[in-house]
């Protein structure tokens, strides 16, 4: 387990049983300071403008965010609840450019990164590697989260809600030296609402087996108008022979869309499992013969949580449920689930 994974795990386990934000922060901080590493918590609040946030996260010592030295590998940057607003100007985005720095908000209903217009800009751009971004929301921007550094790897998105973007997640085509068998980008407990395309790979004419790709589990895609998952397609002789990542898509809910996948992707799909599809207007994985998937109403409540009796709850799912939001009743059985984290209600 990498240091950043371990720190992130400590952070989440420390928060898990604490309802009071102040207590949680204190305990996590003492855990960090007892660690032999130099990892720190850096607190940011909405009084920081977007440029100061970028100065903190750009790895350039000549630019300082509110007079503070840049984050370094192992640090955790905590964004207090509130709205972080991008200005209307070309290229304005929040940007992360430092490896092994993790970012967290305090819940997807609490920490909000907001663009200036739904027709322009990208809320967050990731140029680095070994980062985890979690517990916030993006809205009012053309795109939510973009990955495209010079040699990106191990980018993790957890407990993020993205709302209304034309493209919610985008990653730039980039090949590894050899074929790779683990995702370079992982999304977990992410909730995609409305807009057009859920996951957009940046090369639609086909790619190679070496391409970096996306993995996802416990994702909910609700109401996108064009495509749920636009995954990398490996095309030979004008036929899709593989969808990169198709062994890494599972336990996902796709509802209320007009097209749940890119149509040609079905040619190359082999084993996405645990998908619950409903009201999508095109053939589901189940109807096309992929085992381990169902077409059924997942019975989500207004927060996206499957209700008692939902077909999105069951032992066939890796963590006992499909979709971004853990059901209320079974979380004690599966241990790994932080109910409050999934709703964003850290600090009621
Ligand atoms: Ca800087």
Structural account:
The strands form three sheets. Strands 1, 2, 3, 5, 6, 8, 10, 12, 14, 18, 19, 20 and 21 form a 13-stranded parallel β-sheet that branches. A six-stranded parallel β-sheet has the order 4-7-9-11-13-15. It has a two-stranded antiparallel sheet with strand order 16-17. The two termini are 33 Å apart. The chain is 14% helix and 29% strand. It has six helices and 21 strands. The protein has helices at 3-16, 21-33, 50-56, 265-268, 331-334, 339-343; strands at 41-44, 76-79, 82-85, 94-96, 102-104, 111-114, 122-126, 131-139, 143-147, 155-163, 167-171, 185-193, 197-201, 214-222, 227-230, 233-236, 239-243, 249-250, 253-255, 276-278, 294-295. Helix 1 packs antiparallel against helix 2. The chain has one domain (80-343). By secondary structure, it is α/β, with parallel strands linked by helices. The longest helix is centred in the N-terminal third of the chain and has 14 residues, at 3-16. Bound molecules: calcium ion (CA). Calcium ion (CA) binds at residues 55, 58, 60, 63-64, 70.
């Amino acid at each position: 387990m990498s240091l950043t994974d371990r720190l992130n795990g400590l952070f989440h386990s420390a928060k898990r049983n604490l309802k009071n934000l102040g207590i949680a922060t204190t305990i996590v901080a003492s855990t960090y300071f007892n660690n032999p590493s130099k990892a720190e918590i850096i607190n940011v609040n909405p009084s920081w403008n977007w440029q100061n946030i970028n100065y903190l996260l750009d790895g350039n010592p000549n630019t300082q965010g509110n007079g503070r030295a840049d984050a370094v590998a192992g640090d955790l940057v905590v964004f207090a609840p509130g709205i972080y607003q991008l200005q209307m100007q070309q290229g304005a985005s929040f940007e992360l450019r430092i490896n092994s720095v993790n970012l967290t908000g305090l819940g997807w209903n609490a920490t909000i990164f907001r663009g200036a217009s739904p027709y322009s800009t990208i809320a967050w751009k990731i140029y680095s590697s070994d980062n985890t971004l979690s517990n916030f929301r993006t809205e009012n921007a053309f795109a939510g989260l973009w990955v495209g550094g010079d040699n990106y790897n191990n980018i993790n998105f957890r407990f993020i809600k993205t709302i209304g973007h034309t493209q919610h997640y985008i990653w730039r085509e980039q090949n590894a030296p050899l074929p790779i068998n683990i995702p370079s980008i992982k999304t977990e407990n992410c909730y995609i609402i409305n807009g057009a395309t859920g996951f957009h790979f940046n090369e639609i004419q086909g790619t190679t087996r070496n391409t970096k790709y996306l993995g996802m589990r416990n994702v909910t895609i609700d109401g996108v108008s064009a495509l749920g998952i636009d995954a990398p397609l490996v095309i030979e002789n004008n036929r899709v022979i593989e969808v990169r990542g198709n062994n890494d898509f599972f336990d996902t809910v796709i509802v209320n869309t007009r097209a749940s996948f890119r149509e040609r992707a079905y040619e190359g799909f082999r084993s996405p499992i645990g998908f619950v599809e409903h009201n999508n207007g095109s053939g589901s994985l189940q109807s096309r013969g992929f085992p381990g998937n169902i077409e059924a109403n997942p019975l989500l409540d207004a927060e996206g949580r499957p209700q008692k009796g939902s077909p999105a709850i069951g032992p066939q799912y890796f963590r006992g449920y499909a979709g971004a939001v853990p059901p209320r009743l079974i979380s004690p059985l599966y241990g790994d689930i932080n109910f409050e984290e999934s709703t964003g209600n850290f600090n009621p």
